[in-house]
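Standup notes, structure subgroup. Blocker cleared on the thymidine-5'-diphosphate input:
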Amino acid sequence: MNGKFITIEGIDGSGKSTMSHYIVNKIKERGYDVILTREPGGTDISEMIRKIILDNEIDPKTEVLLFAASRREHLVKKIKPALEKGIFVVCDRFLDSSIAYQSYGRGLDEKKIININDYALNGIKPDVTLYFDVDLERGLERTQKREKNNKLDSQSLEFYGKIKNAYDNLYKKEPNRIKRVDANLEINEVEKELDNLLESLFRKWKI
Ligand code: TYD
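Run returned:
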């Protein structure tokens, strides 16, 4: 059996990065090998591209192409080989982030972004995407506490509103692939939600 490809999405401060470790442990407990990776990044070249994107002011279309280039490297060198060996892959952000940030956030054409990424991905899609849905104010409060201030973290409330709207729309369009997690709750409540969600996925996958 091929491994399952699980992506994690949400606005900055949704807690998705913290909870991705929890998800990885649950899969391990189930007896499966699993890797945790992230975008942009995940391989040496993709991490180099990540640095270029996050540390510089870049033209939005160049940015779309760099995210897609980074994603292709990641897919070919890490994600696909792992899945083929039966290893599960948990990836913090993937294609939905490009739609949310570059299309809804920066105003670029959604179809063109999808086409560019189709070319990069050869039809590979996540088996499931967990959307960590948090209220805007709460998400921003959490990012400010982190004191990390890269370019994308310092955007306005209006920008984050657009990103949240993107995820809400994607979730409505693809309820079979995208599962929503209420990320406003306390950590132990979010963990309980994830336990239920993962149990139903494991049942569906017959594992
Ligand atoms: P990161 O510090 O990893 O943020 P987070 O912990 O919220 O994931 O930085 C990644 C940033 O890159 C994040 O603000 C979202 C953005 N991004 C895009 O704009 N497009 C993309 O396709 C991806 C993968 C990320």
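Discussed briefly. Residues 26 and 199 are 10 Å apart (CA to CA).
Next: hand off to the docking folks.
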